[in-house]
Amino acid sequence: xxxxxxxxxxxxxxxxxxxxxxxxxxxxxxxxxxxxxxxxxxxxxxxxxxxxxxxxxxxxxxxxxxxxxxxxxxxxxxxxxxxxxxxxxxxxx
Length: 93
Description:
The chain is an alpha+beta fold. 28% of the residues lie in helices and 29% in strands. It has helices at 5-16, 46-59, and strands at 19-26, 31-37, 63-68, 77-82. Strands 1-2-4-3 form a 4-stranded antiparallel β-sheet, covered by helices on one side. 15% of the residues are buried.
């Protein structure tokens, strides 16, 4: 059984071991905004956490656009991700 986009996102975020919430979800267009916080006692630099998340999302074929310590929300990292599969039209009639 194939994972849904949301399950895949949650799997990645749980692997990186961060607290997260979905700020915006557009499942039709496969676009999501995530708000990320370090867990209590997590002393990793935000850049390290961000790079780890970016690596996993890129491997899963997501675009990745982050803002560290964004001014507009009370979060440590705000991430916009999207998964746009290109349609292969090479064999189309």
